[in-house]
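thread: overnight batch results

M.L. [08:02]
morning all. the overnight job finished for the chain we discussed friday. pasting input first so we're all looking at the same thing
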Amino acid sequence: QVQLVESGGGLVQAGGSLRLACEASGSIYSVNDMDWYRQAPGKQRELVAGISSIGVSKYKDSVEGRFTISRDNAKNTAYLEMNSLKPEDTGVYYCYVDGLQHAAHGMRTGMRVWGNGTLVTVSS
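M.L. [08:03]
and the structure it wrote out:
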């Protein structure tokens, strides 16, 4: 089994910065995409940023230029550097990872895992 643990959330004033981390562990064979989603209270979960296995990144329009996603493949960890934070960035941030995991008899199966989320609160 594979687990994701997010960290780095907290309370910050508008204009401040936070750095989130998502570490995947367990029976991992390979990791494909690593994504960050967020969900504000009463709102739908939305994709904030994603990064492919070869380092190609994408961003929600409203965060582009302020957020940077990166990954350390040796550590199976994704990061989200968030700068110039705004109150509308407030929400629970979730990591999502897909790829392949080890299975019985040397086989591998698909891996699709969500973290439990970390709360980011940006005050005015």
